[in-house]
Amino acid sequence: MADITLGQIAGLLAALGFLVLVYFSIKPLRKLSGVLDRLTESLRELTEHTLPAIDEAAQTVAEANFQVKKLDAITEAATRTSEDISAMTTLVTSTVGAPFLAARKGASRLRGAFGQDKPQQAPGDQSDFFDTSN
User: Which DSSP letter does residue 134 get?
Assistant: First the structure.
């Protein structure tokens, strides 16, 4: 029979120790594998739900941008309308007001011609504001 040496016994013990280490490492590695599988599935679900939300957000931003452009056009039209109304108001005031001012000035001249003095103007009175004789 062959003699077993001390080195062979040490090698056998080392192999048994490695076998025990592998045996006890299998259970945590299987748990880690399960955790990684669940993590992969969670990421897949997250991606499936996130991408449509991002697409909807992009579509909402595009629609909002379109509405802002329409609002800009409406604002520009309102500005032009306001300017036109202001110009029309000035035109109507000068067209309608000029004859009244001319009549007032004529009446004032008639009073002056007949010897009646022109009434004193109160401070802050702008009655000669539209005076067109100058």
Answer: -
Are 118 and 111 in contact by the 8 Å Cβ rule? The answer is yes
Q: Is the pLDDT assigned to residue 131 strictly greater than 80?
A: no
Angstrom distance (rounded) from CA 50 to CA 56: 10
Residue-wise pLDDT for 3-16, tens only, equals: 889 999 999 999 99
Q: What is the DSSP string of 12-79?
A: HHHHHHHHHHHHHHHHHHHHHHHHHHHHHHHHHHHHHHHHHHHHHHHHHHHHHHHHHHHHHHHHHHHH
Alpha carbon 25 to chain centroid, angstroms: 56
102 Cβ partners below 8 Å, 6+ apart?
Answer: 132
More confident residue, 114 or 74: 74
